[in-house]
């Protein structure tokens, strides 16, 4: 199998793990305010885990990202390095922005080892795009995942207006886009997923400081 095909395979298997929801967790400009101490956690679904198992693939976090366990299964938590955008706390489907995460993901399988680092993502109209380094080669997707932001659970601290508050948006479902399914089919010949398949969940958290009046 060629290096290019292995790269595509790794990207297809690990796509549900890529935290391309980073923009909403890392807003950082004077117009929208700033988010500090942010992190993004991605937990993949049972259908994705079954496909990883079928292909003998093992997922590991690359520091400073960490593997975490929850009642819903394993996940990878990434520190947010930078970003900007509008978290749109009053109307989550309108959230938009872009950001970058620290750490990465390693996928080991009989077909070879794949290292994904340099994770960057953007979100607009609940569609996530992004790019990363796959074994040193840049891979980009203009529309990789669909995020059901409105289905997530939003929680915030009760603080006076204008003061910093902790924000957490959890269990946001992720679904495949036609572009992602096309890439998957090009690699494997058949797709194990559809646009309605739940690929996983994203949780984002951080301390939000509103812009100065």
Explain this structure.
- The structure is a single chain.
- This protein has 213 residues and is an alpha+beta fold.
- It has helices at residues 3-14, 46-54, 178-188, and strands at 28-29, 33-44, 58-62, 66-70, 73-86, 96-101, 104-109, 112-124, 127-134, 137-147, 153-156, 165-176, 198-209.
- It has an eight-stranded antiparallel barrel with strand order 2-5-6-8-9-10-12-13.
- Helix 1 crosses helix 3 (178-188).
- The termini are far apart.
- 40% of the residues are buried.
- The model is unreliable at 1-28 (pLDDT under 50).
Features:
single chain, 213 residues, alpha+beta, eight-stranded antiparallel barrel, 13 strands, disordered N terminus
Topology summary:
Layout: H1 3-14, E1 28-29, E2 33-44, H2 46-54, E3 58-62, E4 66-70, E5 73-86, E6 96-101, E7 104-109, E8 112-124, E9 127-134, E10 137-147, E11 153-156, E12 165-176, H3 178-188, E13 198-209
Antiparallel strand pairs: 1-2, 2-5, 2-13, 3-7, 4-5, 5-6, 6-8, 7-8, 8-9, 9-10, 10-12, 11-12, 12-13
Helix pairs in contact: 1-3
């Amino acid at each position: 199998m060629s290096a290019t095909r292995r790269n595509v395979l790794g990207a297809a298997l690990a796509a549900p793990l890529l935290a391309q929801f980073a923009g909403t967790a890392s807003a950082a400009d004077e117009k929208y305010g700033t988010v500090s101490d942010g992190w993004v956690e991605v937990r993949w679904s049972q259908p994705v885990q079954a496909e990883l198992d079928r292909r003998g693939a093992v997922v590991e976090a690359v520091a400073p990202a960490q593997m975490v366990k929850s009642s819903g299964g394993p996940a990878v938590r990434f520190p947010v390095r930078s970003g900007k955008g509008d978290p749109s706390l009053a109307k989550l489907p309108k959230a938009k922005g872009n950001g970058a995460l620290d750490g990465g993901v390693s996928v080991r399988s009989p077909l070879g080892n794949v290292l994904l680092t340099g994770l960057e993502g953007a979100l607009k109209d609940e569609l996530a795009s992004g790019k990363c380094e796959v074994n040193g080669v840049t891979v980009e997707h203009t529309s990789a995942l669909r995020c059901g932001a409105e289905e997530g659970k939003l929680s915030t601290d009760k603080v006076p207006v204008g003061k910093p508050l902790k924000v957490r948006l959890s269990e946001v479902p992720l679904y495949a886009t036609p572009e992602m399914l096309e890439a998957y089919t090009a690699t494997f010949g058949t797709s194990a997923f559809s646009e309605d398949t739940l690929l996983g969940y994203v949780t984002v958290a951080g301390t939000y400081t509103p812009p100065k009046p």
